[in-house]
Structures are given as structure tokens and as C-alpha cells.
Amino acid sequence: MEKYLFVEFMKSRKVIKIISGSLFIIFLTLFVFDDSFTQLTSYENLKPIVLQIIANSLSGNISQAELNQSYNIMLLACEDKKSIEVPLTNIGNITIPCDQINSTTPQNLDNLIASLAFDKIYYTEFSCDFINCIKENNYNVIFSSYGNKFFCNLQPYLLIITIALGILFFFSLENLFEKLKSFGAALLFSSIPNVALNYLKDVIFSNFKGYSYAMLILNKLFSIMLSEFIIILIIGIILFLMGYFIERKKKK
């Protein structure tokens, strides 16, 4: 009877080890993804990227002579107004305060317009919640303050689940060297594919429409992810090697 119970316990322990280990890898990866999107979609990180995209788009469609002409028209319009509205394709009207127009130059007009356009895009109010916006193919929600709040709010839940699964996985392992090796291996399984993806992204995404603009965002995202997965990779290697050498020492 005692032998039967021991066998059943070991079976259940193995099942717990496999399930908790697999879920730990998944949720650790999800946590890093979420943290990376949280950092990417912060106002201070996202604005320089989008400004570059908008400015490049404006400079490709509007010559400096046209900017000079637009600037003079705005100066005239501001003689009896505090602000003016300028229509932008795919964005709508943006309000430009006249004091900002008066303090800028024709050469910097595109940067001023791009900055105000970003603020309008970033602080857009959505009638749908984040998940439903994605289901409705409204992907602009990802790169907005609304999306940033969603990613921020998701972080503590993913962190708690990841820690809980890590603890469960750690204690489902039998001895110290197995704990170290298996936990280290789990960290390696989480980090290696994502570190490799960083170096393959140019090949994978090169055929996508709008590749050059998308890569400005993807490069920043992968840069954030890479720094976090490198840390996980290093910790994983250290734990695995510690477990390996302890196991070898015990076998001698």
C-alpha cells in the first residue's frame, strides 16, 4: 500500500512538474512581452518614433516651398485668432495654438504638426475596450495611452502568476541539482527563441507592407525585449551550470 501511494505521488509530482514548468515558461515570456509593450507605448518612448514616421511622411509629400507657403498662410490666419485647425489625412483636424506657430520657423513646421498629431493619436478616446478594439481591427489602440494603461494594468497579474508557477515548479523538483538544472533550462527555453528572433526580425518582417515605418517601432520593441531576455538567458545559464556541476560532484 505504501509503495503504491509512493508511486502515485511520484506520478502526480511528475505531472505537476511538466504542467507548472510549461506554464512558467509561457507566463514568463508573456510577462516580458507585456513589460516591453508597456515601455514601448509610454509617451516618452513612443513619441520620438511616431514623430519620425509622421515627419518622414510629411517631408515625402510636402516640399519646403509648400511648407513655407503653409507657414505664411498660418501666420496670416493667426493675426486675429488664438489657434487654427489643420486637416491631416487619416488623423483628422488638429488644433495648433498660434503662439506655437509664431515661435517656430518654416523649417520646423513639420515637426510642430507631427508633435500635435501624435498627441491627438496618443490620447484618442476609444468607445470599445482594448480586447474588442483589437477584435474590430482597430490596432491604433495598441499605440495609445489607453493601450499603455491596459499593458500596465496587466503586469501585476502576470507577475503574480509567473512567480506562483515558478515556486510550484521549483518545489515539484526532487533535489537541489535537479531544481537548479530544470529551473535554468526553463529560463533558457523562454529566452533563447526570443533572443534569436531579435536577430531574425529583418528577414521575417522584410516583406510586410510599410516595412520601413514598422521597423522603427519593431526595433525599439525588440531592443527592450532583448535586454530583458538577455538577463533571463544569463541567469538560466548560471543556474543550469550550477546544477550540472553539483550533480557531477555528487556522482563522484
Structural class: mainly alpha
Number of domains: 2
| H/I helix tally | 9
Task: Characterize the overall form.
Answer: elongated
Order of helices and strands: HHHEEHHHHHH
Radius of gyration: 26 Å
How much of the residues is beta strand, in percent? under 5%
Average pLDDT reading = 85
* N-C termini distance: 35 Å
- Tally of DSSP β-strands: 2
Give the strand order, joined by hyphens, for the main sheet.
1-2
- Unreliably modeled segments: 1-9
Helix fraction?
A: over 70%
Sheet with most strands: 2 strands, antiparallel
Can you offer a commentary on this structure?
- There is one protein chain.
- This protein is mainly α and 252 residues long.
- The protein has 2 domains: 123 residues, no CATH class; 102 residues, no CATH class.
- Helix content is 78%, strand content 5%.
- It has a two-stranded antiparallel ribbon.
- A hairpin with a 3-residue loop joins strand 1 and strand 2.
- Helix 1 packs parallel to helix 8 and helix 8 packs antiparallel against helix 9.
- The longest helix has 41 residues.
- The chain is elongated, with a radius of gyration of 26 Å.
- The chain starts with a helix and ends with a helix.
- The N terminus is likely disordered.
